[in-house]
Design goal:
This protein is of the alpha/beta class. The protein is about 50% helix and about 10% strand. Helix 4 packs antiparallel against helix 5. The relative contact order is 0.16. The protein binds guanosine-5'-triphosphate (GTP). The site of guanosine-5'-triphosphate has 20 residues, from helix 6. It catalyses: GTP + H2O = GDP + phosphate + H(+).
Length: about 350
């Protein structure tokens, strides 16, 4: 009898301990006395939106990045100045000047033009004073880089349409990176935009673009299907962009250069389909400055397929052949509008002839 009573007592006590424990565990974290003053954590953004990067201002970017350009292209300017500062400038020196320009990928015709212009000035003005030599070289370099070209980006649309920017170029030249960096430039200028991942051959390319967009709060239209029709993604992007009333729609394309006919089919179709919705305002061809003549050949194929309106020259920080700026402009008859000077998110600058020449010879 006594044993039964003790057993019952133990059972009751056990149940009481379990119930107590469960109550404590299920109650969850305790609010501070007086409750929370806000529904946000201290480090939540004030407007409740996910935090985004603030891209660096665009003005003065080439000046900020000039150091990099000067570092890689210093030999060109220094070499030319040294040659022009010699006591006696004979034909051998002029040959060396021309060789230096050719080595920097300036192209044969512009190199010859520059040498002839310098030759005639040296004959007339002389080269006694180093400051004068520098000034002369600066002016003649500037002429071949051509400060008069219209390098403005056509990012705005008309008649209620968004501006439509197509970004084309061979794989690996820095297309997606450029779209990402350019999106940051536009965000820094308070533009509303939408990105389109029409590089559907590689799912990672769309991911990469989306990541760039997310960092600055810009959305990306993409297809979940690998190998989907790039033109249909481009079309959807424009349609969506129009509905949202964004300022600019920017489309990253795939640049597989299997052959000219294939490329023409693909880019031609994208452009045709897009233009059913809104006119294309800018077609940027991205070229890797480190690829020299090879890059030029590819550039020509693209230029035959679509009407290029501007060049983006990437990786100019990684080559001593800055003369490629001139060669490309002369060959394609299209201005370099932007230059890539590094892998950082804000290492893209509007090209400016004066800043470029100063970086070469300072
Ligand atoms: N140093 C340097 N690297 C750059 C520059 N622009 C792009 N890159 C690098 O070049 C590589 C290729 O860039 P992507 O943007 O993936 O090239 P893509 O043309 O889009 O290539 P796909 O996506 O394969 O079509 C990346 O490692 C970039 O960081 C630049 O201006 N300077």
């Amino acid at each position: 009898m006594n044993d039964t009573l003790t057993l019952i007592l133990y059972i009751v006590l056990g149940v009481a301990v379990l119930v107590g424990l469960a109550t404590v565990l299920m109650r969850g974290p305790k609010a501070p006395p007086g409750g929370y003053s806000s529904t946000r954590d201290a480090n939540d953004p004030a407007d409740g939106k996910p935090s985004v990067d603030s891209p660096a201002p665009v003005a003065g970017r080439l000046v900020r990045l000039r150091e990099r350009l000067a570092r890689s292209n210093n030999m060109l300017g220094k070499g030319l100045l040294a040659l022009l500062s010699r006591d006696k400038i004979d034909q051998d020196v002029w040959d060396e000047v021309e060789e230096t320009l050719l080595m920097a990928d300036l192209g044969s015709e512009p190199s010859m033009r520059l040498v002839e212009a310098l030759q005639s000035r040296v004959r007339v003005e002389g080269t006694e004073d180093p400051a004068h030599v520098k000034q002369m070289l600066r002016e003649e370099l500037l002429k071949v880089v051509n400060p008069d070209l219209d390098r403005s980006l056509k990012l705005d649309g008309a008649d209620g349409n968004p501006g439509v920017v197509l970004v084309v170029g061979v794989n690996g030249v820095g297309k997606t990176t450029t779209v990402g960096k350019l999106a940051r430039v536009m965000v820094a200028e308070d533009k509303q935009l939408l990105l389109g991942a029409a590089d559907t051959f590689r799912a990672a390319a769309a991911d990469q673009l989306q990541t760039w967009g997310n960092r600055v709060g810009v959305e990306t239209v993409r297809s979940e299907k690998d190998g989907a029709d790039p033109a249909s993604v481009a079309f959807e992007t424009i349609k969506e962009g129009k509905q949202r009333g964004v300022d600019t729609v920017m489309i990253d394309t795939a640049g597989r250069l299997q052959n000219k006919a294939g490329l023409m089919d693909q880019l031609g179709k994208i452009k045709r389909v897009v233009e059913k919705e809104a006119p294309v305002t800018e077609v940027l061809l991205v070229i890797d400055a480190t690829t020299g003549q090879n890059g030029m050949v590819q550039a020509k194929v693209f230029a035959e397929v679509v009407d290029i309106t501007g060049i983006v020259l990437t990786k100019l920080d990684g080559t001593a052949k800055g003369g490629i700026v001139v060669a490309i402009q002369e060959t394609l008859g299209v201005p370099v509008k932007l230059v890539g000077l590094g892998e950082g998110p804000d290492d893209l600058a509007p090209f400016d002839a004066e800043g470029f020449v100063d970086a070469l010879i300072d």
